[in-house]
Amino acid sequence: MAEEVFPSARWQYCREPDDSQSALLVQFSNGRLQNPGNMRFTLYKNNDSTNPRKRNQRILAAETDRLSYVGNNFGTGALKCNTLCRHFVGILNKTSGQMEVYDAELFNMQPLFSDESVESESTLDSQAKSFREKMDSCIEAFGTTKQKRALNSRRMNKVGSESLNRAVAKAAENIIDTKGVTALVSDASHNESPGDSVCLPPCHADAAKPEDVYKFEDRILLAAEAPPHFPILSPVEYDALQSPSEAFRNVTSEEILKMIEENSHCSFVIEALKSLPSNEESRDRQARCIWYLDTLIKFRAQKVIKRKSALGPGVPHIINTKLLKQFTCLTYNNGSLRNLISDSMKAKITAYVIILALHINAFQIDLTMLQRDLKLSEKRMMEIAKAMRLKISKRKVSLAVGGEEEHRLGTLSIPLPPAQSLDHQSKRRKMT
Known about the structure:
This protein is of the alpha+beta class. The chain has helices at about 80-85, 115-130, 130-140, 145-155, 160-180, 180-190, 195-200, 235-240, 245-250, 255-260, 265-275, 280-300, 315-325, 345-360, 365-375, 380-385, 425-430, and strands at about 10-15, 25-30, 40-45, 60-65, 70, 85-95, 100-110, 305, 330-335, 335-340, 365, 390-400, 405-410.
């Protein structure tokens, strides 16, 4: 039996047909085509030619009279065999007996079903929902039993804003009808002018020494209807300042110069650090007081405290709790409680800063410097200082750029001058 002889051909590798795109091989996921000649193919490529990941990305679209198909060489729908092996397409020239071989890429074509009405409806519905409503929908579909129980509880406890506003408006109308507008205005003006005891710490007018007028450890028990007073620093709070005040206690002249350059601390703190005593016990006390004063000034600069740690992790927990409890008031806004530093609380912080400054600086302080550090008007600073029974004087101070300017000094000395309320000036203007 004669052996069958197959015709031979020369093999020639030609790389890509156009140096940018391999030959395309397609397979259809839903079967074989009965009429391949009726297909219309369109190839899309990524325009980003500089990105090596994107420049070879391709999308192949095919259309027939009945269906549309789409395939790509990237993403989750791409075939992994394109990266694991290479495909080739050979074209045989029967006349010359030479087979030209080109690189090829395989695309898996999948039918594309589009329902524009359903898609547009779901898109509009999704855009109309808020983020909270979308999260609730996810919890309803895929959430745990605990999450679904919490969702149902929240919905049951939710009160419609419109009904709440109507109830508040109705209650306000009833109060106005009952008390009258004149009585309400009188009550409001009374509430807007609280006594000095709300802002100022307890003052011992009969003290024999300046240091006993405003005591660190003092806490006066008042009547039930009066606001509580807290000590400037209790023994436990004073002990808690040992660790955070260590940097001030061991500060060097180079570090003070760096503070001045970076403007990281106010002028009063810088000047107080320059004159720290050499005695170890006195230096430690001064450093703790300076650190607490610096913390109060930074705390006063805020308006709303949105987190429990108001000034960051460096503040001891007991001090942070003291600041929130003593110098803020709770407000309800958008369904949550917030700590607000109101104007009266800012005045209270200013009073406590003045007391700390007096204890730091031998009971005589530069009120003008402190007023600028607290970003207060001179008029308001003088009102608070006089309400705290300080003696006000003037002094010329030399400036670094040359020249002099007039500063107000506040001195706590015995005997104390007559008391003057915080709202004394405004009341006098109303009378005139």
